[in-house]
Amino acid sequence: MLYINIMNSHPLLSFPFLPQQQHLLPFLFISFIFTSQQLCCSNSQKTPFNFSCIFFLSHANINPFLYTHSNNPIPTVKMFFKTTILFSLLATSLAAPITSSQIIEKRAPVLRVQNYSQFQVSDGVAGDGLNRVLAKFPVNMSNPASVDPQDVAILKAARETAEAAETKAGGFNEAIKAAGGEKTPAGAALQRGKILNKILKLQLQVMTLTIEGAQGKDTTAKLAEQQKKLAKNIETDKKAAGERAAAVDFQGTSQP
Questions:
Q1: Which of 65, 155, 227, 234 has the fewest C-beta atoms under 10 angstroms from its C-beta?
Q2: 175 with 248: CB under 8 angstroms?
Q3: Which domain of life is it from (predicted)?
Q4: Strand, helix or coil at 53?
């Protein structure tokens, strides 16, 4: 055992005791604890050493502080010091600091379920679609692996609703056709709104794929494809900056 070597080589812990010297034992006990902590472990490694000492002292009939040249322990204080050693080492073990690698970051959810009319970004004017999406879905992507599962579920549901708002009944394709096509003023405004809706849909998918990739899923190819589509629609939106865009009254939510 490591601490036996320390005791055998430590002059303070190896000289013989006489009965009249028993009052020195508490000071030697403190010296042993301090020496073992300084020589045998750093702050982040206290626990393994201390618990190994506790295990050894609990299963071996050895009292390191009652050493004499005749190897005869002092029976009147043997049990007292064995108990003291066990509790003291346990206390220092439990007091050992937690290292940064043991801290697991956990974020609280930041999104809430909304109707499409609340999270859509198609009304107003064109030119700033991406920033609008990020404002409506303020998920911190600096550490995507730690994004709350509830937020991920809402992102997915909102993306599905945004896609439905483009292709399903009551969506942009139907509204543009009813307005006489993209060449009419109303149709052109709806077309610009459709581009903004595409940015919403694609950005939500990029965020979802990024999070899933950080959590271990292979999303590399799909993510690259969606990022390319997103960049194309952002460019189209910026070319129409300042022009009127129109939304559709589509019924849907971000409920997972």
A1: 227
A2: yes
A3: Eukaryota
A4: helix
